[in-house]
Amino acid sequence: TAETLSDKYKLSSEGTLEISNIQTEDSGRYTCVAQNIEGADTRVATIRVNGTLLDGTQVLKIYVKQAESHSILVSWKVNSNVMTSNLKWSSATMKIDNPHITYTARVPVDVHEYNLTHLQPSTDYEVCLTVSNIHQQTQKSCVNVTTKNAAFALDITDQETSTALAAVMGSMFAVISLASVSVYVAKRFKRKNYHHSLKKYMQKTSSIPLNELYPPLINLWEGDSEKDKEGSAETKPT
C-alpha cells in the first residue's frame, strides 16, 4: 500500500512493485490488489530469497599476477556466501584497443588463474571476468594492463642468461681454486713429511759407529797395521 512505500519499496503507476536491496527477511507472500469501477481483484505471489549477492566490488576482484610481452597471467577472488557458493561458471573476456585481437574463454569456477596468450607487445588490454550463478545473476570485474615491450623482455632474458653464465663461471672458478689449494696443501704436507723423515734418518745414521757401518774395511785396516808393526820389529835388531 502507499503507506508502506519507502526507498526500499517502489510502486510504479502501472502497478509494478520494485524491491531494492532485497534480503532474506524479504521472503514471503506478496498480495497485489487491483481496483477499478467494476470491482477489485487480487493476486498472491510468493518470493523466496536464498541469500544476498554482494555488489561487484565485494563479490569479485580480478588481479594481474604477471605481464609479459605476449601473455598476461590473471587471478581472481570470489567471496563465499550463499549466492556465490552456487556459482557454476566464470567467463574471462579480454578486450584490447586493437580490434583485430579479442577472445572469450570459459573456465570452471574453482579455477582462480588464467593465462591469456598470443598477445601483442606494448599493447593496452582490458581483461574482464564475469561470474554467474544458478539464477543467472552476474557480477563483473575488469582490470587494465599493458604488455611488456619485446626488446625489454629480450633484455631481461639476456640479463638472466648472463647472470646464469656468471654464476656457472663463478662456481667453476671456485672449484678450480679449491682444487689448487688442495694440491698445494697436499704437496706442502708431503714435503714436510719428507724433510722430517730425512732429519730423523740423518740423526740415526750419525750415531752409528764406523765399524758397524763398514766392518770389513775397518778389520782389514787394523790387520795391515799389525803386520807393519811386526815387520818393523823384526828388522830393528840388525
Automatic annotation (TrEMBL):
Q: Which InterPro entries would you find in this protein's record? A: FN3_dom, FN3_sf, Ig-like_dom, Ig-like_dom_sf, Ig-like_fold, Ig_I-set
Where in this chain does the record put each Ig-like domain? 1-50
Q: Which positions fall inside the Fibronectin type-III domain?
A: 58-150
Superkingdom field: Eukaryota
This protein is called Leucine-rich repeat neuronal 1
Which keywords appear in this protein's UniProt record, sorted alphabetically? Immunoglobulin domain, Membrane, Transmembrane, Transmembrane helix
TM regions (residue ranges): 164-186
